[in-house]
Protein 1
Amino acid sequence: MVANIASSSPTSISFKPFEVEAKPAGTNLQGALDVKSEYFIGDFLRLHGEKIGRGDDVRQIITYHADNNDWSIKAECKEQLLNKLLAVVKGGDEQIHNRVFLDVIRDWYHGLDAGSKIENAVVAADHLNAKGQSIARMIVEANHKLGQGSDSIRLLDVGGNDGKLTSYVASHVSDYSGSPVHPYVLEVETGVSWDHNCHEVSTAHNVKNQPVKTIYYDGHDMSSGRVSGEDSSNPLSDGLGFDCAMYQHSLHHFPSPEIQQQSLAQIASLLKEGGVLTISEHSSALGGHELDLMHMVTEVYSDLHRDPEMSGAELESRYNAYVAKEAPANYFSQTRLLDMAQKVGLTPSSSTSISEKAERTYSMTFVKTDVANLNRDRSLEALLDPEALKAVSAKYQTSPVGGLMRSLDGGY
Ligand SMILES: C[S@@+](CC[C@H](N)C(=O)[O-])C[C@H]1O[C@@H](n2cnc3c(N)ncnc32)[C@H](O)[C@@H]1O
């Protein structure tokens, strides 16, 4: 059978429909769901959308492109896309090539009228500010004395991208603590656009603070860091240390659990005594596959937003490049993060709750100090007791189907 999906939307350009042989039934869905497979999107939709009845999670993934970004697409249009994608997998057992789904997305996007795309710059600015404020609160609440005894607070944002969120966090840390903040982003040059970040939103300006500086490094050895535009300066090895550090949805991009652990060890050694580390990550009811797909679909939306007339072949090649570079990401549960952080001598101080929703996030905050010095958040008791955590999360568990579950190391 040939899968042939033509555009059902009115377009001014005629895209040549992509034709590819579907694989016969029975060759998949008994083995592991493979994010690198050229049949991954269809396998995922069939498994999660139909077989294990997690339609709501599939909906969240496909309709994810955040409404608090500086542009978004009307919810009902995303719902139409979801139905088009599910229609492709319904009624057959054969595997369908990713390209078929990418063509559906491209044709859908191309057929959207101007009123379906929403400019959200004001909402995005408010969102970034609110997010920055809540991260700053987590940091300052973990150590009320942050910055006392020195002229300024040094903040390091690992994987901080364009530094916009960093600047908002720094601004609020400064307001809460009364001290000026020197914010730094630590980044790698990956070539991935992360285009869904807020373009139209400007950096927060707080007169007390220094502008954000970006340190580029090789991705694991912090001594390789160099401040962008400065030849030799490396604040990671100048011996001054940092008062606080954060990873916002960046630690799962590190290439292996060992490198994640090494990164935490290096950050722990950079923190001053009493220094605070806060980490936000995705939680997941289903495991890592839907998080990978969610990221990939978001990249596809961004590619199309940048170049709506991109050919199917080009979109496929961008998708494949993204998958080759970024997937599968190394997601981890809160239980594992707790373990990784404690191994490097950090004491947990607070945690936000877990969630059954595919795209929800959790945050955990740690302090470089002895547990006796901490006035901890009560919600942490569940995290310190693995049995209690299991009981809380049990209600979100789905039954594994064959070998298809990729759990976040058995937790959330
Ligand atoms: C999803 S983005 C998050 C950006 C930003 N923290 C935010 O919340 O908007 C993930 C970031 O992690 C960065 N990253 C990936 N591997 C890294 C590594 N080994 N060290 C530092 N940053 C890394 C990527 O370049 C990217 O900017």
Protein 2
Amino acid sequence: MTSSCPASGVALQVVENLTGSELLAWRLTMLAEGGEAASFDWLLDLAAGLRGPERQHLWLDPERAVVLQCSCEQLAGLWRQHLREHTPLQYLVGLCPWRDLELQVAPGVLIPRQETEQLVDLALELMAQQAPDSPAHLLRWADLGTGSGCLAVALARALPTSAGVAVDCSSAALLQAEANLLAAGVADRVDLQLGSWWGQAAAFCGAFDLVVSNPPYIPSSLLASLEPVVRLHEPWLALDGGEDGLDALRLIAAGAASGLAPGGWLVLEHHHDQSERVQALLAGVGLEQVASFADLQGHGRFSCGRRPEPAR
Ligand SMILES: C[S@@+](CC[C@H](N)C(=O)[O-])C[C@H]1O[C@@H](n2cnc3c(N)ncnc32)[C@H](O)[C@@H]1O
């Protein structure tokens, strides 16, 4: 029997004659070379198809036969590259679990982060609180700086009667986003645009009920101190927010007053210490109901504001 390992796309022999105890012993020899057990188990899961519950069962029934979708040699190669070059496992395997999705990721495009999952929940809560519109109203949203397309895929799936625009100035990102939108079956409802922030969403400017963005927001002076797995491999275009980290956030806030529809929401992710300054930016362009929200670690991570509706 053959199967292909996601990292290489090369047809490989499935390893069928491994017992649980052999696999667990080999796992320990791999971990003795370095790295974290959780990361190695992630590799077993995503590259070799050994899912969590099945892995747990090996401890209870070590003589059970194990089927891997990659050879141990292939897995060892990926693990050693991760240890040696700090390459993110997501890039090596080409996949990143995120919300209920398994997104495709590749070097040149930011790996979607766990905290960004919450940005979707926040945006959907705000949309659910909107006064119900006429049934004919097509909800319009934009994702500025779409990267892998994670936010665009999640919004398009959660809002089935909506149409979205996903913008990025990186063509590598747009290709990745397109692949993920196609895989999720929502590509026909999302218009991908190459360019800078609001400029590329101009066709619908003033019509967006929702605009989300997770822009680059790390102050430039902090980039050198990021973990090597990020610093050496992820695109700085996706990370570098300029001197105070707010360069992109300023531009996105500046376009909101004309880009949003009256009553439309702008929902932003930002650095853990930027809530107050982002709130000031949003209030400064005339948005109302400005508020910030914490991530699961308790850090102020998201801010939002709403374009006022005309007085009746
Ligand atoms: C932090 S990443 C976020 C990617 C994705 N939305 C996510 O949450 O994982 C920021 C994204 O903004 C894009 N970007 C940077 N400058 C931009 C600009 N001027 N206009 C549009 N996109 C830009 C980067 O290419 C990158 O994909």
Protein 3
Amino acid sequence: MATIDIQGVSKGYGSRRVHADLNLSVQHGECFTLLGPSGCGKTVLLRLVAGFEQPESGSIRINGSPVSDPAAGINIPPDQRDLGVVFQDYAVWPHMTVLENVAYPLKLAKKQRREMEERALEAVAMVGMKGLEKRLPSELSGGQQQRVALARALVAGPSLMLLDEPLTNLDANLREEMRFEIKELQRKLGITVFYVTHDQEIALAISDRLAIMDGQGRVRQIGSPQDIFERPADVFVFNFMGIANFIPVRRVGDDWLVGQGDQRVPVGRPDGAGELYTVGCRPSDVRIAASGPGLRGVVRRASFLGAMMDYQVEVDGVIMRVALETHEAIAGGLMFKAGDPCALNFHDLLWFDSVSAEDTGGA
Ligand SMILES: Nc1ncnc2c1ncn2[C@@H]1O[C@H](COP(=O)(O)OP(=O)(O)O)[C@@H](O)[C@H]1O
Ligand SMILES: [Mg+2]
């Protein structure tokens, strides 16, 4: 079994509280991602799990055994936690060859020379670097150096891997390639991965489950990528996962009206009994027409983005983003310019309790 259990963990520096009573569990064999804005405490949490930092209170268990528990006086050192760790700035040693870098953890563990070499060669091959064993890091690309860091984390055969934004320093193409490779390795080796990142796309692509953390270190939602994207728990999650329209609505009698105007919201109604709500939708979930039923609005800005048209439409003082494919816009006679009247309809609307700027902030 390879699991992580974080229970009631608190950690701060001086007056800055980073984590307060945090709970998270990573299950055996899964790729679990912690996704949150920069500065929310992702690296601090990984350092706590790895044992480079101690929590002030709470406990961390790895594979069911406590590794950090200040109340019980437990603090297992990093090299006895059965973990592989890769940090953002991969930190391979410049004066060592690829093979020496990868073998280093085994050398520290005082393994026999022969075993050391065999296992290091195997780990190098695993990350697709066969034939480059004798190179120095200065003779490698950024992506190759990150592979060396990955091989070094895997060489001791850990059941758990901690990855801290390992792809951030790579260019876009390489990032996409490497995220597939990490996922493949995880499946092939059957290891458990705890991955932290601020990058929504990576998190959606590689995770079995993910947790969304806000700027204050609070976990807002845990679920599958599809859960998070299609059924966001709150406005913060919805906003953090992509461009979002937030439309304030108010109850007047049995009707739900947009902004301060007199037009009815065309789809759905809230479950609750409040007077004020916010409805959310993605720009691609809005359908725009020149006339007809729906919310009457005026195009305030029209942007041609190549494959997409991006409109800002004002409806009774509320600005909404609308996106559609350019070929669809041309075929449908939907090439608007600023000042054109239009009508909006919606594929889907999510109803949230009325929100303040603070609820959506931090993203
Ligand atoms: N050693 C430290 N001393 C003081 N403050 C720290 C230390 N490490 C992290 N912090 C603070 O903790 C917060 C979270 O940092 P971090 O975990 O690095 O965020 P991120 O989610 O971007 O990885 C930040 O406000 C950071 O300044
Ligand atoms: Mg970080």
